[in-house]
Input
Amino acid sequence: MRSTMSLSVICYSMNVAALVARRPATQLMLMGGLYHPSSQSFSSEEGQSYLRKLGINKAFISAGGVHANRGASCSNFHETAVKQAAIATAIESILVADASKLDSLKPAFFADLHAFSRIIIGGAVSREHRKPFKHLPVEYVTRTD
Output
């Protein structure tokens, strides 16, 4: 069943924009700037300024690395400023990553894990790998179909 709930989505990546553009009742705002093929994303100071002027209820932020002590990181330095601006602007910030990203650290740090009201991890995570994150608001999601 497809949702017809009206939704506004702000993004800076081509792959997310391509998916969201197919959703009905959705207003898509794509931040422009210099295109980075390695991450299919855009970056510019103008895009960050635009982002800071918007009213964002929930920011869903992805990470390439989620480390209990070092925080959230990604592989691309051009993404850190956009992610930090979204976190600072949003009422609620939610970190999303798959299980393979846990205990991993990428070169471009962008936020402490306490900056997020929720952390959603997809995939199977052993009890042992969950231990370092027990003091954080982590939800583990696995497919059941």
The mean pLDDT is 93. The longest helix spans residues 80-89. Helices lie at 14-20, 45-52, 80-89, 127-130.
